[in-house]
Amino acid sequence: MAKQVKAIVVADEVIMNKIYFIRGQNVMIDRDLAELYGVETRRLKEQVNRNTSRFPSHFMFELTKEENENLRSQNATFKQGAFSKYLPYAFTEHGVLMLSNVLKSGRAIEMSIKNHRCISSISTCIFAALQSLYFIFKALFLHPYLIDI
Length: 149
Fold this sequence. Notes:
This protein is α+β, with helices and mostly antiparallel strands. The chain has helices at residues 12-16, 30-37, 41-50, 65-74, 93-103, 106-142; strands at residues 19-22, 25-29, 60-62, 89-91. The chain has one domain (12-120). The protein has six helices and four strands. The protein has a four-stranded antiparallel beta sheet. Helix 2 (30-37) packs across helix 3.
């Protein structure tokens, strides 16, 4: 008999709220990814540590104590004492995709694709905004008389 697969319904907004901008990159934190993939954070980290060659520094990095404290202070849903004693990993767009290869579950693959799509759309929006600002500043530089003070 064929195994029935349950459809996973996670709103894009839920995923987008789990994307942070750290070290100049859009990243997702290990505990958020573990929740989305339906695994324990420690199991996710175990698989990453067993497959370190698949996660170079531009795919994943460990947060510093300061970055972790900043993240915790910005996010009211993180309760004091409900954290691992270890610093979390941050996964870039490529690292999120690689996780599906390491975890090898249907849910991980499906969520990885959805996470990648959300990260890509945020990156596209940021690029478009920066491009617009560039053209505005360029126009103002070339035509300063347009500014009415």
